[in-house]
Amino acid sequence: MKKILLLLLVISFSTLSALTKLDSLRLELDKSKGKERISILDTIQKEYLEIYPKASLQYGIEALALSRQLNDRQSEVNELINIAHSYRNLEEYDTALQYLHKSLAKANQLDDKKIIIEIQLDISKQYADNFNSSKAFQFAINANKLSEEIQFKEGIARSNFLMGDIYLMLGEINDAQVLFERSLQNFDDQKQPISIGRIYEKLAIINLENNELKMAEENFQKGLIYHNNANNTEGLIRCYEKLAAMMKDQGRTRAAQDYYQKLYHYNQELELKLSRNMNLYLYEYHNAQGERKRAIEYLQLYEAQQDSLKNFRAKKSFETHYQKIITELIENYHEEKTDIQDKHEKDLTMKNRQIVKTQKENIKKIEELKRLEKETILQKKIFQIENQKKKDQIEKLQAEKELKDLKISQKIRERNFLIFSSAIFIVLLILFYLNFHQKRELSKVLEKKNQYLTELTKELMEKEKELERQAKTDYLTELPNRNAMAEKLKHEKYRFLRNKNPFSLIISDIDDFKKINDNYGHDFGDFVLSNIAKLIKKTIRKQDVCARWGGEEFLFLLPETDEKGSAILAEKVRKSIEKFDFEFNEQKIHCSMTFGTSVFRKDITIDKCLKEADNALYHGKNTGKNKVVKYSLIKDKN
C-alpha cells in the first residue's frame, strides 16, 4: 500500500512539473549545434516575443551572433528582424527602427525581394506609429513599387493599406478610401481574414466621416464576419464598440443594447486572455530564475485559465445564438420557469443525498482498505521474523561446520581478507579524495561564473533603465519626448473609454522662433527652449503632462479638463512667458507663444483631436499670434 501511495505522489508531481513547449525547446537547445541551434533559438525567440520580450531579445541576440559566426546571411537577416520586433514589444521604438534598417541593408545584399518588401512594410508601420508620416509613406511607396514589379499580391495589399492608413491619419479620406479598396482586391479571404476585417473597419470609419451611416453599418458588419472567422477578439471589440455607439446616436436602443452586451462579453474574454498570458510570462520568468515552485504555481493558473477561456467561449456562443429565445421564454413563461427551478432544486437535493451516500460508502471502503493494509503489514512482519529465525539456524549450522572443517585454513583466509580489505579501503580512499578535490575545484569555478553573471546582469539592468529614461526624454528641455507623449495619449484614451471623464489637448508654438535663431544664434534659441520648458513645468498642475512635440512646438495633455479649463491654463502659461526676460550672453529679449486647444470626444480619434488643436494654433498664428484659440470657436469657419 505504501508503494502505491508513493507511486501516486510521484505521478502527481510529474504532472505538475510537466514540461511546456518552451522547456522542451530549451532541452533540445542544449544538445544542438550549428544551423539546427539557430533554428531552435529562432523558435524560442518567437515563442517568447509576446509573453517575455526581454528573454526573446536575449535569444535573438544569441541567434544573431551564431548566424554571423556560421556566415549564414539569410538567418542573419531573419534574426535582425526578430530583434527589432523584440525591441518594439519593449517599446524601444528607435532601437527597433535601427535594427530594421540593418536588416534591410543585409536583405538588399541578398537581393531577396520578398524579404525586402516585408522589411520596408515593417519600417513604414514603425514610422507611422512614431507619427513620422513622411518617412512612413516613403517606405510604403517603395514596398508598393517593388511588389508591383514582382507581382507580389500580399505586398501590394499591405502597402496600399499602410498608405491608406497614413492618408486617413492626415484627414485625406477620399485618397484613403481608394487605397483601402485597392488593398481589399489583393488580400486572400482564406489566408488574411484579420487584414480584410481591418480594411472594412477603415472603410466604415470613412463612411462615418461622410455621414454614410447605412454603408458604415454594413462595412462594420462585414468586418465582424472576418474577425469572428479569425477569432480576433480585439477586432470584434472595435467593431462592436463603433456599432453600439452608432445605434445609440440613432436612437436604436434595442440594437445598441445587444451590441453593448456582446462588447461586454468580448472585453471579458480579452481580459482573460491577457491575464492568461501574464501567468505564462510569470511562469517563464520564475522558471528562468530557477524558482521552480513559484513557476509551477503560475503554470497551474495558466492551465486553469486555458480551460476557463474554452468554457467562456462556449458560454459566449450559446448566449450569442440563443439569447433572444431565452429572453422571450423568461418574459412569457415566468411561472413555468419557477416550477422547473423547484423541480431542479428537488433533483439537485436528491443528487446531493445520493452523493453523500456514495461518499459514506467510499469512506467505508477506504477504512476497509486501511484495515486490510494493517493486517497485511502485520502478516509481513510475522513472516519476516520466522524467516529470520530459520536464517539464523542455517547460519549457526554453517558456522559449526566451518569450525570443524576449516580450522587450518581459517588463519590464511583471515590474512587474505585483511589484505584485500586494506587494498579496497586504500582504493576507495583515493577515489574519494579525487572526487572531493574535483568537486571543490568545480565549485570554485561555478562560484566565479555566478558572481560574474550577477555583476553583468546588474550592469545590464542599470544600462537598460538609463536607456529607457533617455528614450522617453527630450535631451534639451528634459520634458517627455514625442514617443513618451504618444504612449500617455493612448493610456488617457483608454481611461476616457472606461470612466468617460473628458481630457483636453493644447498645442503651442513659440512665435517667430526662426528669427531668434537667425538674429541671436542657435545657442540663444536652445536657451529660450530650455527656459520656456522650466516656466511650463512651474505653471502646469501635477496631473498635467507637457512634452516637446517637435522643434519649437509643445503638446499639453490635461486629464479630466474641459475646454474652458484648458483655455484658462493655456492663458496662464502664455502670460508667464510673455513677462519673462530671456537674457543670454548680455543680450535680452522677450518671447511669446500661441496656443490651440481641443477636447477629446467619443466620436473622434486622438489624431483628429490633435489636428483640431493644430488648426486652432494656426488660426491664432494667422490672426496676430501671442494668444489662446479654442477649436470650438473656429470649427464653423473651417
Short account of what is shown:
This protein is 80% helix and 6% strand. The chain has 23 helices and seven strands.
Could you explain the architecture of this structure?
The protein has 638 residues and is mainly alpha-helical. Helices cover 80% and strands 6% of the residues. The chain contains 23 helices and 7 strands. The strands form 2 sheets. A 5-stranded mixed β-sheet has the order 2-3-1-6-7, with helices on both faces. A two-stranded antiparallel sheet has the order 4-5. β6, α22 (606-622) and β7 form a beta-alpha-beta unit. The radius of gyration is 37 Å and the shape is elongated.
Considering the chains and any ligands shown, give keywords for the structure:
7 strands, two-stranded antiparallel sheet, 23 helices, five-stranded mixed β-sheet, 638 residues, mainly alpha
Structural class: mainly alpha
Strand numbers in spatial order across the main sheet: 2-3-1-6-7
User: Quick check: average pLDDT?
Assistant: 78
* End-to-end distance: 87 Å
Q: How large is the count of helical segments?
A: 23
What ranges have pLDDT less than 50 throughout 5 or more consecutive residues? Answer: 1-19, 312-341
- Helix percent reads over 70%
N-to-C series of helices and strands: HHHHHHHHHHHHHHHHHHEHHEEHEEEHEH
Q: How many whole angstroms does the radius of gyration measure?
A: 37 Å
Largest sheet geometry: 5 strands, mixed
Quick one: overall form? elongated
Beta-strand percentage range: 5-15%
